[in-house]
Write a structure and sequence with these properties.
Blueprint: H1 4-13, E1 32-39, E2 43-44, H2 48-58, E3 63-67, E4 73-74, E5 79-86, H3 87-117, E6 124-126, H4 136-145, E7 159-161, H5 163-172, H6 176-180, E8 189-193, H7 196-204, E9 209-213, H8 217-227, E10 232-236, H9 244-249, E11 254-256, H10 259-262, E12 269-275
Parallel strand pairs: 6-11, 7-8, 8-9, 9-10, 10-11
Antiparallel strand pairs: 1-5, 1-12, 2-4, 3-5
Helix pairs in contact: 1-2, 2-3, 3-4
């Protein structure tokens, strides 16, 4: 089930099995009830499977009655997902479920806006590693739900040669080509370039994926032309949904936006719980 480890940590943090308030309901806590998660404005839905995971962890017989499709827009005052379970399970998991659903939907919505901004170009929107500690897999899932594509998810997934690596390499007097020669076979290699000298070293080393960080679209365009059509250009650094198209038109095939996960606003959602007959 999606997000099981993350959900278990969140439920433990909230001490969901020790709900001091719901205990006061007595037998009513064990009665069947329904929770409706309702949108308060338009946004892209992401995280419904995680909501299911939350309540199945608390009640193995909990069931989703209906749900909006992942990655689709919802309208204001729309029921996104309805869950049937015991009153105690719904009350214990309500906030954890909302936290996941609100955050993941916010990420998917911001991603979709960036994806729409570059529509008609070859560019794709992707994430960075600027994620909430412990929630990276789910946050990157939400980027995909919003129409984005995967990028390097961890330090082990690819060689990503950045500014600090250039500095340390320079102290040893070694070339980039010599350093990259020791890269594991088959592992993707991405090299960040900040100036013409680094660009030429990367191209001479046969690098096929360049990261251009914190540069204006005009500089991205110039370096993309120098690299040629066989080299993937990834742009990053303060890019937003409003500026993404300029980078796409400059020749960036991959546009990494850290704000998708580090500065997103939660989608406005409420949870209404009622007894079922």
């Amino acid at each position: 089930m999606l997000g099981r480890e993350e959900v278990r940590r969140a439920l433990a943090e909230d001490r969901a099995g020790e709900d001091a308030t719901t205990h006061l309901l007595g037998t009513a806590a064990r009665s069947p009830a329904t929770a409706r998660f309702i949108s308060e404005e338009e946004f892209v839905v992401a995280g419904v499977p995680v909501v299911e995971t939350v309540f199945r962890e608390l009640d193995g017989s909990a069931a989703l009655v209906d749900a909006a499709p992942e990655g689709g827009w919802c309208r204001a005052d729309q029921t996104i997902v309805t869950v049937r379970s015991t009153a105690s399970a719904l009350l214990a998991g309500e906030r954890v479920a909302l936290n996941f659903l609100q955050r993941l939907s916010g990420i998917a919505t911001l991603t979709r806006r960036a994806v729409d901004a570059v529509a008609g170009t070859p560019a794709h929107i992707t994430h960075t590693r600027k994620t909430t500690p412990g929630l990276r897999a789910l946050e990157q899932y939400a980027v995909r739900a919003g129409g984005g594509v995967d990028n390097r998810a961890s330090l082990a997934d690819a060689v990503l040669w950045k500014d600090n690596h250039w500095v340390l390499l320079g102290r040893e007097g070694r070339s980039l080509a010599a350093a990259l020669a020791a890269a594991p076979d088959g592992l993707p290699v991405i090299v960040e370039v900040e100036n013409e000298e680094q660009l030429e070293q990367a191209l001479a080393a046969g690098v096929k994926h360049l990261l251009i960080d914190n540069q204006p679209p005009g500089q991205v365009s110039a370096w993309a032309r120098r690299a040629g059509p066989d080299v993937m250009i990834q742009a990053s650094g303060g890019i937003t949904a409003e500026t993404a198209r300029a980078y796409a038109e400059a020749g960036a095939g991959l546009i990494a936006i850290g704000a998708l996960t580090h500065s997103v606003s939660a989608a406005p959602i409420r949870c209404d719980i009622g007894a079922t007959g």
